[in-house]
Amino acid sequence: MRRKNNKNVKILIVDDNQMVSLATSAMVGSINNFKIIGMVTGAKEMFKFLKRKIPDIILMDVSMIPIDGVEATKYIQENYDEISVIGFSAHDCSVYKDEMINAGARDYLLKSNALPEIVNCINNVWKNGLGITTC
Questions:
Q1: Local confidence pLDDT in tens for the 135 residues of the chain
Q2: Could you give the CA distance from residue 77 to residue 69 in angstroms, rounded to a whole number?
Q3: Which option is the CATH number for 9-128: 3.90.1310.10, 3.30.460.10, 3.55.30.10, 3.40.50.2300?
């Protein structure tokens, strides 16, 4: 899914840790063509959000309860093919990464990545429709 125009990239952050969401929003939202359109604390809240607004990219936490990021990503891929999901996790473990990619995530970022790496990953997914794994 290649993007041809230069409009703002609409990003939704899905993370059950509000401090992580706020910090990520402040960092990522400071980039010129990135627009944070929402922050939600879990999959159920995300499902409600998607009835009102559709992001281009979702930064999806992997470890959430009761619905984890893998199941939420599967739902996105089955119901919103125009949305690209990037796994966003503190877990530097290939099992989590593989599960997210197999569920349909375009790439997998560590929360500890520096801002330039996060920006590069989002841009690669946005412009090229995939990133596996440039991040």
A1: 445 455 899 999 999 999 999 999 999 999 999 999 999 999 999 999 999 999 999 999 999 999 999 999 999 999 998 999 999 999 888 889 999 999 999 999 999 999 999 999 999 999 887 666 545
A2: 12
A3: 3.40.50.2300
Write phi, then psi, for 34 (nearest 5 degrees): -105, 130
Q: Which structure tokens are listed for 131?
A: 């990133």
pTM for this predicted structure:
0.91
Angle of helix 69-79 versus helix 94-103 axis, rounded to 10: 20
